[in-house]
Fold this sequence. Notes:
Strand content: 25-35%
Largest sheet: 8 strands, mixed
Shape: globular
Radius of gyration: 31 Å
Distance between the termini: 75 Å
Helix content: 10-25%
Low-confidence stretches: 1-40, 170-211, 287-301, 541-567
Amino acid sequence: MDSRLGPTYRVEVKRYLGFVIIAPIGLLAAALPGASSAAAAASVASLQPSSVGANASSTIIITGTGFSASTTVSISGCPATNPGAVYPVPFPNPGPGQTAGSVQLIDSTRILLTTPTIIPAGVCDVAVGGNTLPSALTFTAAPERLTLELRNNSGRDDSEVWVSVGYNCPLSTPSPPYPPGTNDCEPDGSTNPDYAWPATSSGDNPNRYWYEVYSDTTPLPAFTGVRYSDLPGTTRNRTISIANITSGVVYVSYGDPVNTGPREAGRAPSYLTAQTRFDVFELTFHGSGSSAGDPGEGTWTNQIYANVTAVSGLGILMNMTGWDNSYGRNGPAPQRVGSGIRWLSGLGIYDVYEGLAAAGADVDDSHVVVTNDGKPATADNFLRFVSPSTNEGSGYADLAVNASAYLPWVAAQNEPMTVIGLYTGAGAGSGSWYCYRSTGFSTTAATELTGTYGFSSLADAQSAAQRNCTGGTSGANITTATSATSGTPGPVTSASVYLQDNRYLQGGAVATGNDLYNAIYRDFMVSFAYGYWGSAGWSTDQWLNYGGTTPAFSAAWPGLPRPQTYPRWNAYAEAIWQVGNAYGMPYSDTFENAGKGNPLVSGSNIYTLRVTLRPDGAWETPAALLPAVQRVTVRKGQRFMTGVLTSVGMGPGVSYRISPTLPTSQKNAVNGIWFNRTNGVIKGTPTKLKRSTAYIITAKDNDGVTASSKVRLRVTS
């Protein structure tokens, strides 16, 4: 998996939310005159839906008769989870970060119930007024199946789009309560005859990979492309359901299917060589359970994690959102969970291309932009962009090419490098802050980080940084290495910055595990890709609010004009972040994804992932100066100004010139007319008559892109 799809570790500042205790409406209503008679008159017919997510806020329609503003609702009798507990709605004291739920009267026959977020899994009774419906509402720890709602807004016909799902199943865990309910990820009782995972990868059971993808209720062949138009649903809006899997990658391709089996013809496509245009999104369904808060692999209380990743490359723009199971016909529509992945409206593939070119990437290099004919990219031949973490930096700035390049420049500063962060994963140091420090940095020798962990706050870790990161629990030293498995110390290289690939030793031995030290080293390496080292501060606790003006990679671009105009951080990732918030590089969510918001879609009450294929947009927007033509007639002695010009398809630093020439200041105006070269406006108060004269105004930006506009000016008596 390219990105971290579980709650592994993350540098973050926790905020503790207070709460207000509010007396439940139902309890207050019980003291009002006539409340008990109204409650007794209520009669309940049904609850829709009758199964919702546990520990989550879900919306339910209760239908019946005799409902009024004083009708109370409570949930109780959940013997499997919390015997004897009663949950009045709203719940009086849900706790920090929880919601109380609500009861909303629609009319005398309908109540809209929103459940508190504190009710665990189990089958519960529901009391409405004076009536109790036994075992009326089931709270499930996680959805039995995850629906993938795929929307084809690409502009291509449904028959041109293909979908393929590859996945892993839990080693051994009870299937959820749907028939036939067998163990070991086999709800339909059949294996995939076309797929046998090597024993070295999957353990002792070669048949661990089963049909777990469904078109409605019919199993689909996993790892094999399925034509989008053959999926159930309506035109441009079709669905797949996924059952008991641990993690998976969903490929979407245009024109031809993508197969992901073990045979040569079915292996996952290469971002560098595949001649099929494709892209992927990732998901973890019931999770690996390897981190704090996840109780174990395959358990049904784990959250769902999903994201659209561009870590390896980018070929198709896809939006993604997660949705809960709120009842939508008479109540609110299903509610969106999290911010999701979004690409800015009006922008498309070519805008990423322009961003790469502006950042100095070689867009004519087939290791950066892949086309189906090897020629420069156009709307007709484009296949995908390739990230520097896939091609090891080929076609991107070499960060160690000479003494003035980025990494040698950092080494020349001879400054200590401090890594401060909060570790939220499992094992030693979980839930505490750490402080690690390097006394220096070299491009020819290994760098060693030493420090401590166990600090209770950011302030304590910052204080420790003033004492060379002492004062906490001593941790193992961390040493950069030539590879993740060699055991040989080595320097940080240009490729390792782009790959962020965990090349380090832990206490002198080969590092293993997704642990505290992995998090520390991850932060250390990400700081290079973000261009942090060498900026003001020199410690990672400043990342969340870093606002410096020094472009991070400018020292690595000595051959480029005006490097200050180019993006900070990883050039590939920044070109993507200008257009959307998908992962641009590994761990990019760690520091809020360059201010674009976390692209990870996660939650325990996600029942639907909605993925929308976006159109490419205009491959190239010709530069233009608008309005293209102006006809202006003024009287002698009349003050005037031509229209303000708008540049389209041009970058920053636009300046203007005019032909035939006019003075560029009011002081030097000829016959009262002059030209403002900062905004392209002709203005003044004419002192003489003038026949219609055509002026050509030309705009030019910092990259030399030009566009022109014509003004016909006439002065009458």
